[in-house]
Design brief:
homodimer; alpha+beta; five-stranded antiparallel sheet; 15 helices
């Protein structure tokens, strides 16, 4: 058993009722008597305990840190304080993007436990995409989430004291940062016990990824940026498995990896997971072409995600009274405004390049690294799955080595469509 | 009177004897009886109290934070904890570059006071350079200092936990970071009460600097990097006034601005202050050309500073078993080593570009901003001083707007010599 601090105990369906009943606000929200409350443990994630509690008047979610990685067990200890960082990140995100994350009702520091809004009838977006469900409101919502949370926590909006205090706090989330550094930016490019892939089909790809030194340079430049850039408070695990969704509502969950990092990491990871869904569709078709329209929807969504994010980020920048990065006082008058506007565009262009690189990194790690996506894993036919994965890896390589030639998001979609049209490898 | 925490009181020549006598180690180092100790307050800097204490057996330096900016007074409060950050930085620097900083004997947290090695017969390098003194050992020492402290605190050498703990600690030095952000990266490019210059000669330059939007963009890009890049633990005020020197020994002092920032800021600031000395020499000549040989020495030193830093930084990188940024495991074998070596060179090239930008920023701020250098201020003839300053500003502008065309340090020196040969403006 791992040591835990005084006041912490792992909740069970049995002990949770008493824990909730101790706090009047929970009892009021749930209604009725504690014996009326229905509790289900639903944590299908890799890290934590998650309970859904329903009472006569309402429901709530309880998320508690375990002192180890749930996916692996006690042999991989993890700091309990990731719940603290998640609660802090959710609060910051709610402040800047209200109603786009679950509302936190209360954080219990000694129990490393968050009580939050129960989202119903939301499902994990990745599951919906496997089923070919279109989400017409998604692009609008996620671009607002990204633009609001990333812009407002950057030096373009925050004064230096607030920003450096944020960096100070989230620098304590180093153990979760290290997981990302290892499993995304290092292990897939070397021999490592954590790695797995669809063997034997992808054996040659895995070897090529270890041998290709352009990939080693590309991924290391991105890692260096991940290690040294504190551009904004990131969600830092922004993929379709971290989004709860309906046709009319989008909520981003699980920001326990949050830290101050490069903006392109959030943007690129999200686009990567849309790309994985795109290439995985062939594995979910009963007959070729059946999901053509859904692929079209994904492509349109990818375009809307970048363009919408860019437009909204720029809008916020144009309207902010910045006193820190690019202070308004240096850009007064028509010549100043013109120079600043040109610089804003250049900034977004650089961010696009960053995002494509991090997108490439996020593609490879889901196919050759430790953590895979059910978009692909659910494809039972391994040869078919490997074909989907090989196409994804080809795109990943072009993005990681900055040889895709993509200078716009339309170029990226054209690349996906060309890759989709290639013959099967296996 | 500003509030100060319990246990803090400003030391005076009267109270310092008792304070030192309370600690046996100080008494032992000084020797004799407390009444034998000679105390002089010598703080000619802008921020703190500095006492030199001599006893029969030895001497020491006492440096204590004041709760305000000494240069301005109580109207500009400053956090006492800058002494804590200075003590921490000195300890880190001593660890990586022993004998290139004063040794810290003890830090007294409640008094915000550092007891450290007395450096004798060292003088402030800037004063020596005004007198035209050559320091043959300087380039060797300062390049070792920079390469050791900057490489060893970067992600190339530190594991992520150590690095992020360092970022966390030094993020608390935000008030001193903000001074730099304001006085270097903002105020000289706008109308601000803090600014001053050699009027009326430089009035047109000051106006041009406020109106030129290429400069506004250039300085803002550098500020953005200063705000968001945690590449290594910087000294962060590395100029010739922060160096105590003899012909055979070099020590870097006063790292109270220390924080995790972009490496080019330390390198560029140092080179900028050598450039200021270069252009100021004309104001210290009795007749034109008298200091030609000394200018040659400065140019040689500038070349040695960059080349020596580059060589030593690369040497450390080639010999480190890096597990974090650019992990060795990704670059095994001859192809891996070749790719990594090419990337090391590319990294140093990017660092050179960064350094030139920060050099440009450090030139302008000493001529149009709040804090000026005695290199120039000591030139009594204002017309002559303005001519030196105008040449410096022309170089500053080329570097800030990235239009100097300099791709090597030799190019930089050639630029200085061309600029020196131009006709006087005034």
């Amino acid at each position: 058993m791992l040591d835990t601090p005084p006041g912490y105990q792992t909740l069970t369906e049995q002990t949770l009722t008493d824990f909730l009943a101790e706090d009047e606000s929970n009892a009021k929200l749930l209604g009725g008597k504690p014996s009326d409350w229905k509790i289900n443990e639903v944590g299908d994630g890799n890290l934590n305990l998650v309970f859904i509690v329903r009472g006569p008047s309402g429901g709530l979610v309880v998320k508690q840190s375990l002192p180890y990685l749930r996916l692996v067990g006690e042999s991989w200890p993890l700091p309990l304080n990731r719940a603290f960082f998640e609660a802090e990140a959710l609060a910051a995100q709610w402040k800047h993007a209200p109603n786009l994350v679950p509302q936190v009702f209360k954080y219990y520091p000694k129990m490393y436990c968050i009580i939050m809004e129960l989202l119903e009838p939301h499902i994990i977006m990745r599951k919906g995409m496997i089923d070919g469900i279109e989400y017409p409101q998604f692009a609008e919502a996620i671009t607002e989430f990204m633009a609001a949370t990333l812009f407002e926590t950057s030096d373009l909006a925050q004064d230096t004291h607030t920003k450096r205090a944020g960096v100070k706090m989230f620098s304590g989330n180093d153990t979760l940062c290290k997981i990302t550094e290892d499993v995304i930016f290092t292990e897939p490019y070397m021999e490592h016990a954590n790695n797995r892939w669809t063997a034997p089909y992808l054996d040659d790809y895995a070897k090529r990824w270890r041998d290709d030194k352009d990939l080693a340079v590309g991924i290391s430049r991105l890692k260096q940026k991940f290690l040294t850039c504190t551009e904004a408070l990131l969600h830092a695990d922004l993929h379709t498995g971290s989004i709860m969704i309906t046709k009319t509502d989008t909520r981003v969950i699980d920001p326990e990896f949050a830290f101050y990092g490069p903006i392109g990491f959030d943007v690129g990871k999200l686009i990567a997971n849309l790309i994985i869904s795109y290439f995985s569709q062939a594995g979910h078709e009963q007959q070729p072409g059946e999901r053509d329209q859904y692929r079209r929807w994904i492509c349109d969504t990818i375009i809307q995600v970048w363009n919408g994010f860019r437009t909204k980020f720029l809008e916020r920048w144009r309207n902010v009274q910045s006193v820190n990065a690019y202070p308004n006082a240096l850009f007064e008058g028509p010549a100043g405004e013109a120079a600043l506007e040109a610089e804003r565009i250049a900034y977004m262009d650089a961010l696009f390049t960053d995002s494509l690189g991090f997108c490439g990194a996020s593609l490879t790690r889901r196919i050759l690294g430790i953590a895979h996506n059910i978009d692909l894993e659910n494809i039972a036919d391994e040869r078919q799955r490997a074909n989907c994965e090989a196409r994804t890896l080809e795109v990943s390589r072009l993005l990681l080595t900055n040889t895709s030639g993509c200078t716009s998001i339309d170029d990226v979609v054209a690349l996906l469509e060309r890759q989709h049209a290639t013959k099967d490898c296996f």
